[in-house]
Design a protein that fits this description.
Pseudouridine synthase, alpha+beta, RNA binding, 8-stranded mixed beta sheet, single chain
Length: about 325
């Protein structure tokens, strides 16, 4: 019979996401959540101690004891099974981490417990895209492309307009679309390519260079601007470099002021748990809709619920982009 601690552990077996603040390493986030989950599981009420029969000596001067009888049978708890002797039922709980965020970045960080790690691997094999909001500032160049790096150059930016910026973004997106088709290893004239494009499954076959699948400006107030980026196989350092290259294309310079991930596959900011909710009870609620199935299935990965959710998200994005065009 499963103990209360084991039953609670089964409830946190799955996928969930948290909001990682900037300035905090992802390992500290994971370690803090592991500690909170371990405390929550071990804090469940323990089962009653099993009992055993022992023969105990009768108290001296027992009047009712038969002549010559010095022992009596009694049912006593087995103290060797007490938690003060055996220790907590769970000694550690391992939490898996999805696409990581560096210390300077913030946003959605997907985590997994138990069988959720298998679902996490299957999810990323489907080439899910990620969304970011990237803040930039014209007029400065640094050695690491961020506003906290060592300044190496200053330049003017008064000649930059939103129209010029959008033309550069369209050029970058077009170049990345060509790279996406090149790495997909699919004949663009085939029916397979058409069906994959409609379902949002067209992407690089295996590991590839970072690819920007979407790029647009959502805020422009010189010298500050904000970009919305959809991408594959990216790193946060690469996104900062993109801001730097945009500045060069506009005959100026630019640094990245912040990178925030707003979506990782089907997980969005609305699903992310903030620091005050990194507890077992909140995690149980968060993973309810993303719990992986424990039954073995021969269904292809592309037909999984997570894949269907990602496909619908990608198709909606494509439709919205067509409407904007």
């Amino acid at each position: 019979m499963a103990t209360p601690a084991i039953r609670m552990f089964r409830k946190i077996d799955g996928l969930f996401c948290v909001y990682k603040p900037s300035g905090v390493h992802w390992k500290l986030v994971r370690d803090g959540i592991e500690t909170n989950l371990l405390k929550g599981v071990n804090a469940t009420p323990s089962q009653p101690l099993p009992k055993e029969v022992r023969f105990l000596a009768l108290p001296a001067g027992e009047a009712e004891a038969p002549k010559g009888l010095t022992l009596s049978a009694a049912s006593v708890p087995v103290l060797s099974k007490h938690t003060l002797v055996t220790g907590p039922e769970f000694q550690n709980i391992k939490v898996g981490v999805g696409h990581r965020l560096d210390a300077s970045s913030s946003g959605v960080l997907v985590l997994a417990v138990g069988n959720g790690n298998k679902a996490l691997n299957n999810l990323y094999k489907t080439r899910v895209t990620r969304d970011y909001t990237v803040e930039g500032e014209f007029g400065t160049a640094t050695d690491d492309f961020s506003n906290t790096g060592r300044i190496v150059e200053r330049s003017t930016y008064g000649h930059i307009t939103k129209d010029k910026l959008e033309r550069v973004l369209a050029m970058l997106q077009g170049a990345n679309q060509k790279a996406l088709l090149m790495y997909s290893n699919v004949d663009m004239r085939s029916q397979e390519a058409y069906e994959m494009a409609v379902r949002g499954l067209l992407g690089p076959d295996g590991k590839s260079l970072p690819i920007l699948t979407g790029l647009r400006c959502i805020h422009f107030q010189p010298p500050n601007f904000t970009l919305e980026v959809q991408c594959l196989n990216e790193t946060q350092k690469y996104l900062r470099k993109v801001v730097h290259e945009i500045g060069l294309e506009l005959r100026s310079t630019a640094v990245c002021k912040g990178v925030r991930r707003t979506r990782d596959g089907p997980f969005t900011l609305q699903d992310a748990l903030t620091r005050h909710h990194w507890k077992a009870s909140d995690v149980i609620q968060a993973i309810g809709q993303y719990r992986p199935s424990k039954k073995k299935s021969k269904t292809p990965i592309k037909d999984s619920p997570l894949q269907e959710l990602e496909e619908s998200t990608t198709v909606n994005q494509m439709n919205s982009e067509r409407e904007q065009q």
